[in-house]
């Protein structure tokens, strides 16, 4: 296995002949130069989940079995959460550089918790995430880059951070594959799309549930539509942002139900599989010790410096260090750290989770059709 989500767009750009594009995934040698490339990111389609698909998703199941496309296994960025990985895909750099370091993070110098999927203008997206995206780099090189997105995403701060510089196209409510193919008809360039149905079903109903399999069928139909309409001069790359696992309620730890876990904690961020605890002055070591005892065998408990030194986030810019908690909790087994008094009730009701660094959360596919 080689490669990460950060390598996908540089490799796509290399297929298109973009300057300074590095193809570490071997796509150019496998497929040759292409006039057009489509990239479809399927939220929550972890590599191991491909093996759980059946008759409802025949094309993806065939890809898992080696009978369709060219399948590679990559790793996503840590934390294995959507905002972090959309920006790692878009910029081609690790989270320590782009600064979108989790599902939610504390805005340094405040008690505000930024929820990246609900983010608009504050903090200003280009200040919060200043790394140029590959969409912008392609357009600057005279290679059009377009992103076909659901309507609610068109004006979000996360879209600016992940896809800034792309021509944004409203996917509408019709045939998503056709919307991407229509965007491809604009000529040479890159067309990107995003599908969330599988991840939504995993969170609400659980991986392997009938609703999850139905969502997999929808994803398969989108991919099949793209493959069926794929022009000869075009490559289609299908990838994901993370995998996931089901965690039963008895394996939840509710930090708001245990006063000892809140002692010395000023701000709580992250998500159930990776928590960032921002502590009162001088309290970080005591907080770390209490959490390490409470979650022994169930989570890795580190100070910010320890987490950074292990390379979890890649090299970390000084400007973003404080977005990481003073104490970082990374669940290792089937454990979820809930914050029932700090988060919407939908979080506590989730069945499928992701965010930590287990293989089932971090391994993602790259399926290439050309």
From TrEMBL:
It comes from the Bacteria. Gene3D superfamilies: Alkaline Phosphatase, subunit A. It holds the Pfam family Phosphodiest. One of its GO terms (molecular function) is hydrolase activity. Transmembrane segments: none annotated. This is Nucleotide pyrophosphatase. It comes from Mycolicibacillus trivialis.
């Amino acid at each position: 296995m080689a490669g990460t989500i950060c390598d996908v767009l540089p490799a796509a750009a290399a297929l298109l002949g973009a300057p300074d594009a590095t193809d570490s995934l071997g796509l150019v040698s496998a497929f040759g130069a292409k006039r057009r490339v489509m990239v479809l990111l399927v939220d929550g389609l972890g590599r191991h989940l491909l093996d759980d698909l059946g008759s409802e998703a025949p094309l993806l199941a065939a890809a898992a079995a080696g009978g369709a496309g060219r399948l590679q296994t990559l790793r996503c960025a840590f934390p294995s959460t959507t905002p972090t990985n959309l920006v790692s895909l878009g910029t081609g750099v690790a989270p320590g550089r782009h600064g979108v370091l989790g599902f939610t993070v504390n805005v340094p110098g405040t008690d505000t918790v930024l929820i990246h999927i609900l983010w608009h203008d504050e903090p200003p997206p280009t200040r919060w995430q200043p790394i140029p995206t590959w969409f912008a780099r392609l357009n600057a090189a005279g290679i059009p880059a377009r992103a076909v997105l659901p309507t609610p995403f068109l004006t979000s701060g996360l879209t600016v951070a992940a896809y800034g510089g792309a021509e944004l196209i409203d996917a509408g409510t019709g045939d998503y594959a056709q919307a991407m193919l229509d965007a491809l008809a604009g000529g040479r360039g890159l067309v990107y799309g995003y599908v969330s149905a599988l991840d939504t079903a995993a969170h609400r109903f659980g991986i392997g549930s009938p609703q999850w399999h139905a969502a997999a069928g929808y994803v398969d139909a989108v991919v099949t539509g793209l493959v069926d309409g794929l022009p000869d001069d075009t490559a289609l790359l299908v990838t994901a942002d993370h995998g996931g696992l089901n965690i039963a309620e008895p394996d939840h730890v509710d930090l708001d139900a245990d006063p000892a876990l809140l002692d010395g904690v000023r701000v709580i961020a992250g998500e159930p599989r990776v928590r960032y605890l921002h502590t009162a002055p001088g309290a970080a070591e005591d907080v770390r010790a209490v959490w390490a005892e409470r979650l022994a065998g169930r989570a890795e408990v580190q100070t910010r410096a320890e987490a950074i030194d292990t390379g979890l986030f890649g090299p970390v810019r000084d400007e973003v260090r404080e977005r990481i908690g003073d104490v970082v909790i990374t669940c290792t087994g089937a454990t979820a750290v809930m914050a029932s008094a700090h988060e919407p009730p939908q979080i506590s009701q989730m069945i499928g989770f992701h965010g930590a660094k287990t293989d089932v959360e971090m391994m993602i596919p790259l399926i290439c059709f050309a």
